[in-house]
Amino acid sequence: MDSTILIENTAQEFWALVGATPSYPCDIKAAITLTLPIELYPIAGLRVKDVLDWAERIRLNCHIRGRDRRLHGCLIADRGKGTIFLDTQDHENEQRFTLAHELAHFLRDYQAPRQRALTILGETILPVLDGDRPPALAERLPAVLGTVPLGVMSHLMERPDEGLPSNTVIDVEDRANRLALELLAPALPLQNVMEQATTPRGFSTRKTFLTELLITHYGLSGAIATSYAHYLLRQLGEPTFRDWLFRSAE
Fold first, then answer.
1. Are 83 and 62 in contact (CB under 8 A)?
2. What is the pLDDT of residues 36-51, one digit of tens each?
3. In what side-by-side order are the strands of the sheet with 71-78?
4. Domain-by-domain residue ranges, the chain?
């Protein structure tokens, strides 16, 4: 999983590319479309079939495993560009996180390894990255091409379904979630707020306070804000032994 510093740097580099310090809740939609070669494709009640139908219309060789199902969002990346699909029936806060999550996949799982391969191997590797030809023997460097998606890449932000994904998928999604949250609500300023003397005491009270801040000021959905608040407080060493002791005594 990416280190905290790498995640923070990636988020900062994106906002530097945008050329403006974000205000909150940030307009991630405008930031994406004005900065990166990414198109947005909003669909009410988004399903896998919608993505596959779109790919067929533009004659893009796109494969998505599993049955047709509802999606929060989906990223399709090809030849250095991306398309993000999102479900317009989701709440505005949910759509904001979906966009940031798919943007995170584009930045970390598509653009960064692709650029690394181009830097090391040069422009001659471009047809390999685009899926137009297989890599030659001399180009098969695991350290370079091992994590680079060749050809069309897709990532799905699924709704809950039966079964559990593999550990690899969980790691990739956790990384995208963490970067998405750093883009929308950077961790360090929030932790600084929670370390101020004026903030509430007690783990449960502090978690409620931080969750409300993430919802009202940063525009996160309730479920995501609750989970992120818990993560941020854990990074600060909470709950403390005192929190545990007093809770046990209740």
1. no
2. 999 999 999 999 999 9
3. 38-43, 81-87, 71-78, 153-158
4. 4-184, 186-250
Name the pTM for this structure.
0.90
Q: What is the pLDDT of residues 87-105, one digit of tens each?
A: 999 999 999 999 999 999 9
Quote the tokens at residue 157: 């932000």
Strand partners, 47: 70
Residues contacting 187, CB < 8 A, separation 6+:
4, 8, 181, 232, 235
Q: Is the pLDDT assigned to residue 244 strictly greater than 70?
A: no
Bridge partners for 74 per DSSP: 85, 156
Please give the single-letter amino acid code of residue 92: E
Per cent of the chain over pLDDT 70 is 88
Q: What is the 3-state secondary structure (H, E, C) of the chain?
A: CCCHHHHHHHHHHHHHHHCCCCCCCCCHHHHHHHHCCEEEEEECCCEHHHHHHHHHHCCCCCCCCCCCCEEEEEEEEECCEEEEEEECCCCHHHHHHHHHHHHHHHHHHHHHHHHHHHHHHCHHHHHHHCCCCCCCHHHCCHHHHCCCCCCCEEEEEECCCCCCCCHHHHHHHHHHHHHHHHHHCCHHHHHHHHCCCCCCCCHHHHHHHHHHHHHHCCCCCHHHHHHHHHHHHHHCCCCCHHHHHHHHHC
Residue with tokens 């989701």: 90
> Which is more confident, 242 or 151?
151
CB of 143 closer than 8 Å to CB of 66: no
Tokens of 131: 């899926």
